[in-house]
User: Fold this.
Amino acid sequence: MSAFITDYSRTLAANESVLINCAGATSIRCLEGSAAFEIKPDDRNPVSMELGIGFKYRQSFDSLRIVNGATAQTIKLAIGDGDIEDNRMVGTVDISGGIVIAGSDAGGYGNVTVGVAASLVLAESSVRGSVLVQNLGGAEIYLGIDNSVTVSNGIKVDGNGGTMVLPMKTDIYAISAVAGQDVRYLYGEV
Assistant:
């Protein structure tokens, strides 16, 4: 818990630099700003700063130099001697690769016979996490997401126990060059 928190607000011209006194400060958080700028506690190495970013230093600092970038802007900082919590998240969160949600105990399994015409193995489901497809037939099967899958464009799963895991919620179809292939599936729900 901070013994002091100071809100510092100032409109800075492009490339303007200002020095502020903040004896004994250890933390800083940017509460307002439209572009990146730099801070230098006690004129040490510069640190890039922007809206929503905060730092807590191990050593206290007595002054803070603010060096604005090429854009004039109003900068507002919270400066204190401990944790600075303002209970806000600002900006955009970009998550590549998606979010994994803990699985549930629900799911299912079954089997279909796949032949020379595309067969639906499993219908689309918005709650499905992934599907394990196993080919117990003697010939290869080929997987796709609609009934236009062929042995020429589908993804091959070898016969005699070949498997593939599909992290998909879409329809799953299969086809083979040989009729009567025993295909099994097992899926979990999220």
Notes: The chain has a mean pLDDT of 87. The longest strand covers residues 17-32.
